[in-house]
Design a protein that fits this description.
By secondary structure, the protein is α+β, with helices and mostly antiparallel strands. The protein has helices at about 45-60, 100-110, 145-155, 155-180, 230-240, 255-270, 275-280, and strands at about 5-10, 15-20, 25-30, 35, 35-40, 70, 80, 85, 90-95, 110, 115, 125-135, 180-195, 200, 210-215. The strands form four sheets. Strands 8, 9, 12, 13, 14 and 15 form a six-stranded antiparallel sheet that branches. Strands 1-2-3-7-6 form a five-stranded antiparallel sheet. Strands 4-5 form a two-stranded antiparallel ribbon. A hairpin with a 5-residue loop joins strand 6 (about 70) and strand 7. Helix 3 packs across helix 4. The longest helix has 23 residues, at about 155-180. The protein is globular. The chain starts with 5 loop residues before the first strand and ends in an 11-residue tail after the last helix.
C-alpha cells in the first residue's frame, strides 16, 4: 500500500511532509541560500551531503542525546523523522570567533550577553566553547539573545539542559573533526521534545550548512578562513556588490563546481566514507564510527 504524503512546509533548503500522526518526511534539496536569500542556482548533490552527514552524526551522538531520525530513504536525501514539539531557539555553540559572534564582539566586546577577553582577532579560538542562543526568525535574520532571554522562552531548567547538551555535542564533534584535520569553528542545533518531554536533537547535525568547517592546516587567525561550507558562495556573492535582497545572483559553473567539491570533501573526511558509496547505499553512514 503506497503512503499518502501531505506537504507541510518549504524551508530554504528542505521540504517537509506528513507521513502519519507520528512521522514526518524531511527532504533536503540542492538549493543554497546566502544572507537568507535562496539563490537561483542549485549545487548538485548538496542535499545528499547534508542528509548523509546528519545521518552519520545522529548515529555517533546517540549516547549524548536522542535524535529524531527514524530511517534514511534510498534516495539519500529523504529522512523519516519523529514528530516533536520544537523549542523556539536556535542553539549555537562557538569554539572560535566568527560570523555574527565576531560582529557582536567588534561592537560590544561580547556576544549573546557573554563578555569575551579583550584583543581577540577574527577567527581566534575562544578560551572555551560558549553557548550563544538566538531567536528562530520566520522572516529576516535570527537575533542573538542572552541566557536570561532564552530562559524566558523555554524555562530555566530546560535552558540549562539544552546548554549542557549542546556543549557536549560540540565537544564530541570537534574532537572527531580535529582528528581528521578539520576545525569545527561553530555549529547550530535545533532541539524538540518528544511525547514524554525528553530533549531530542532535530533537523540536522554538524552539516556544512549548520557549521563552519575549516581546514586545520590552513588556519590563520586574523581574518576569514578557507572553509568546507558555503562561505565560498558567500564570498562570491559579496564580490558582486549585491544588495543581499531577492532575487539572488546566478552562480557561475566554477563556483558551483567548487562548492560541490567542498561539500563532498567535508562529507568524506568527516565520515571516512566515499561519497559514491553513500549514494549507492545511504545506510552506510549508520553502520558505525569512521576509522
Amino acid at each position: 500500500m503506497s503512503e499518502t504524503l501531505v506537504h507541510v512546509a518549504s524551508g530554504k533548503v528542505r521540504e517537509l511532509f506528513t507521513i502519519d500522526e507520528e512521522r514526518l518526511l524531511l527532504v533536503a534539496s540542492d538549493r543554497i541560500s546566502t544572507f537568507d536569500v535562496v539563490l537561483p542556482t542549485e549545487i548538485p548533490d548538496k542535499g545528499r551531503v547534508l542528509t548523509g552527514l546528519s545521518g552519520f552524526w545522529f548515529a555517533q551522538t546517540g549516547g549524548i542525546c536522542g535524535n529524531h531520525l527514524l530511517a534514511l530513504r534510498p534516495d539519500g536525501r529523504s529522512t523519516e523523522c519523529k514528530r516533536l514539539e520544537m523549542l523556539p531557539l536556535e542553539c549555537v555553540v562557538r569554539g572560535y570567533l566568527a560570523g555574527s559572534g565576531w560582529k557582536d564582539y567588534q561592537r560590544s566586546g561580547s556576544t549573546s550577553g557573554r563578555a569575551l577577553p579583550e584583543g581577540l582577532r577574527e577567527s581566534d579560538r575562544l578560551p572555551e566553547p560558549i553557548f550563544t542562543p538566538s531567536t528562530k526568525a520566520t522572516t529576516g535574520h535570527d537575533e542573538n539573545i542572552d541566557a536570561e532571554q532564552a530562559s524566558a522562552l523555554v524555562g530555566e531548567e530546560r535552558f540549562a539542559e539544552v546548554e549542557a547538551t549542546a556543549l557536549a555535542l560540540y565537544r564530541f564533534a570537534s574532537e572527531h573533526a580535529a582528528a581528521r584535520g578539520i576545525i569545527l569553528a561553530d555549529t547550530k542545533f535545533e532541539f524538540g521534545l518528544d511525547e514524554h518531554g525528553a530533549l531530542v536533537l532535530a533537523d540536522e547535525a554538524f552539516t556544512s550548512d549548520s557549521s563552519r568547517f575549516w581546514p586545520a592546516d590552513e588556519y590563520a587567525p586574523g581574518g576569514t578562513q578557507p572553509s568546507f561550507d558555503k562561505q565560498y558562495v558567500r564570498d562570491y556573492c559579496e564580490s558582486l556588490g549585491w544588495d543581499k535582497t531577492p532575487p539572488g545572483p546566478e552562480l557561475p559553473d566554477e563556483v558551483v563546481a567548487g562548492t560541490r567539491a567542498r561539500y563532498v570533501e567535508a562529507f568524506e573526511r568527516l565520515t571516512g566514507i566515499a561519497f559514491d558509496d553513500y549514494v549507492a547505499d545511504p545506510t552506510v553512514v549508520r553502520a558505525g564510527p569512521a576509522q
